[in-house]
Amino acid sequence: MIEQLTSIIQQGDIIKLYKFINSPEYIVNDHKIYLDLMQLDDEIAFEWVSKYWYYRNLRIAHNIKKSLKPKTKRAIILYGAGHNYLLKQQLEDDPSITVIQYGSCPKSRA
Questions:
Q1: What letter does residue 23 receive in the DSSP assignment?
Q2: d(CA 58, CA 10)
Q3: Does residue 106 sit in helix, strand or coil?
Q4: Which of 15, 17, 60, 103 has the fewest Cβ atoms within 10 Å of its own Cβ atom?
């Protein structure tokens, strides 16, 4: 994944980059890094992921939901790729929110 990401960055194609970092494979692989950190025999890494990283993503999702007005029909949320997996999961758990990720939209909606 790193080699592929590096190659895309070197090409300077921002559209290709956004599609790549929003692909299901990249999102799962990126999240796996945080899961792997929690498996290290390192209490600091475990504490950082569990008490900081997950908490931070919960706060971001909370703030996104709080900022949506009752009549809001659409909102564009831009965040770093490392947040993708958890924010998507946390927002999709709310039945009043439909998440459509860039690069995963049907052609007619892209």
A1: S
A2: 33
A3: coil
A4: 15
d(CA 83, CA 35): 13
In degrees to the nearest 10, what's the CA dihedral of 82, 20, 28, 91? 60
d(CA 26, CA 101): 13
Residue bearing tokens 């990249």: 26
Q: Whole-prediction pTM value? A: 0.77
CA–CA distance, 49 with 107 (Å, rounded to integer)? 36
Angle between helix 54-67 and helix 84-92 axes, rounded to 10 deg: 50
**pLDDT digit string (tens) for 27-67?**
999 899 888 888 888 888 888 988 899 999 999 999 999 99
Q: What's the rounded Cα separation, in Å, for the pair 75 and 61? A: 13
R_g (Cα) of the chain, nearest Å: 16
Torsion of CA 5, 9, 12, 17, to 10 degrees: 40
Q: Residue length, the chain?
A: 110
